[in-house]
Amino acid sequence: MDFIFLIASSIMILTCLYFIISPFFTGKEGKLTEANTGEDTFTLEAIYGAVNELEMDYLMKKISEADYTSLKEQYQLLAAGMMKQGQTKKKQSNTKRGSDKVELEILAELQKLRKQKGR
């Protein structure tokens, strides 16, 4: 009976050692660095979440007021810059749409004139 417990415990110990040591020998180092490079792009939701957490930390007295104000200003400037970029992209797409509409109207008028001259 002791022999069965000895075999079962040795299998369990070897399994635990395998799960502890195996991450050191897998080739996932490159994947981790690739995942970290994507963190440079932020979304507005992520910035708002960071400001919210920053405010909670300040209210819980985890950070000083000077750190809170400086970090909050940095996040607000970052969000404002992203919003400006979004507005300029929208304006460019709106002007493109407007110019497309104008071109279609001009083409329609030209077709009408051609049909009238052809009569």
TrEMBL record:
Superkingdom field? Bacteria
Membrane-crossing residues? 6-25
Q: Which UniProt key words apply to this protein?
A: Membrane, Transmembrane, Transmembrane helix
Protein name (Swiss-Prot/TrEMBL):
C-type cytochrome biogenesis protein CcmI
Organism of provenance? Anoxybacillus andreesenii
